[in-house]
Design goal:
This protein is α/β, with parallel strands linked by helices and 363 residues long. 37% of the residues lie in helices and 19% in strands. The chain is built from twelve helices and 17 strands. A hairpin with a 5-residue loop joins strand 8 and strand 9. The structure holds iron/sulfur cluster (2 copies). One iron/sulfur cluster (SF4) binds next to helix 11.
């Protein structure tokens, strides 16, 4: 008989409260099942701010067999780590002490021994929201349900899976253990996506292990340089070396998952990431430092609004003249594009539109 049992409702992704939603759908059956378990003490750990859970608890009232433990978070990766959740019932902060999948800590789906996995799909999916798939599935089966807004490029399986999947892995079977999947299409840049994901990991890292905390910090610095057009060719190899070590040496699965995300991104999207360094090109024209802004002669009415918006005096022109952006002065802030009501200003990646070299009369 186990000394304790923890039913863990705290989401790892605030945007994907899968266990909470499943619990609230059939709370009374779950409570009955929990009560009949043989553990000496039973706990339900849940996020304090969750409105529906609070309403449920107000209606259901106290339950002497179960201890309800609210925690001050809407969601955090540490609550996917069982050693961290155990510390909560000991009255301590949820800091991971390792990886222990054998502890009696259960998500709603683990408790129900479900052979399906519910996930929230976001990003550039045509159909976003909550989906349920077989626990062992393929990226293609997922994509068939949600599809992508524009041409599909890849998908990110969030913590604890930490996988960036591309076209080459569409039919590879994988075990779904994450609550969140992000779809990206041709309008997304993989490097930009990776940088955003790494940023999130840096906020989730608890700082207790060198490979988890320092490793994630280093990943962030290298990716930041690449995104800011300060990257060097050797940065890619550096990332690889760092993540290979991190994946096995990080104390808990947060550092390992961060490393795995970078490794799979480099395995499956290396060409697109390397282009930023080798060709100074962001093929999706997303990374601000790699795009250029241009004024289309046939749409510009010479209103001068963009000149007023540009704080760097990078736009040449006068009333009723087609305006021209001086690429040497432009800092790619995008303010002119927002200011132009004619839609005459476009941003470009490797392929640039033809524009006049100096202002010419409109029409
Ligand atoms: S680019 Fe747009 S905002 Fe600038 S002068 Fe032409 S029409 Fe006006
Ligand atoms: S992108 Fe910014 S700096 Fe460049 S021309 Fe437009 S407003 Fe000026």
């Amino acid at each position: 008989m186990s000394e304790y049992m923890i039913y863990n409702l705290v989401p790892t992704f605030s945007e994907a409260p899968v266990s909470l939603d499943l619990f609230l759908k059939e709370a009374s059956q779950v409570i009955d099942a929990l009560k009949s378990s043989k553990a000496d003490k039973k706990y339900i750990v849940y996020p304090k701010q969750h409105k529906e859970m609070t309403q449920y608890l107000q209606q259901a009232g106290e339950n002497e067999d179960i201890v309800y433990l609210p925690v001050e978070t809407g969601g955090a990766f540490v609550f996917g780590n069982k050693t961290a959740v155990v510390r909560v019932i000991q009255g301590e902060k949820p800091l991971p002490t390792g990886v222990d999948h054998g502890l009696p800590v259960f998500s709603a789906e683990e408790f129900a021994a479900a052979d399906t996995k519910t996930v929230v799909i976001g990003g550039n999916a045509k159909k976003k929201g909550t989906f349920t798939f077989a626990k062992t599935t393929t990226p293609r089966a997922i994509l068939e349900q949600c599809s992508s807004v524009k041409e599909w490029k890849g998908m990110y399986f969030g913590y604890p899976m930490g996988r960036m999947v591309g076209a080459g892995q569409l039919d590879e079977e994988l075990e779904l253990t994450t609550d969140y999947i992000h779809i990206f299409d041709e309008t997304d840049c993989v490097l930009d996506q990776l940088f955003k994901i790494a940023n999130r990991y840096s906020k989730e890292s608890c700082g207790r292990c060198v490979y988890g905390f320092e490793g994630v910090t280093q990943i962030n610095m290298i990716l930041s340089d690449l995104v800011q057009k300060k990257g060097k060719t050797e940065d890619i190899e550096l990332l690889l070396d760092l993540c290979i070590v991190m994946e096995t040496q990080a104390l808990c699965d947060i550092g390992a998952s961060a490393a795995r995300t970078v490794l799979t991104a480099l395995q499956n999207f290396r060409e697109e990431i390397e282009e930023h360094v080798a060709k100074k090109n962001c093929r999706a024209a997303v990374c601000a430092r790699y795009v250029t802004y241009h004024i289309l002669a046939d749409l510009c009415t010479g209103c001068t609004d963009c000149v007023d918006a540009c704080e760097d005096d990078a736009i040449l022109g006068k009333k009723k003249f087609v305006h021209v952006i001086d690429q040497d002065e432009c800092v790619q802030c995008g303010a002119c594009m927002e200011a132009c009501e004619e839609g005459a200003i476009v941003k470009a990646g490797a392929v640039k539109p033809k524009t006049p070299k100096k202002p010419v009369p409109c029409g």
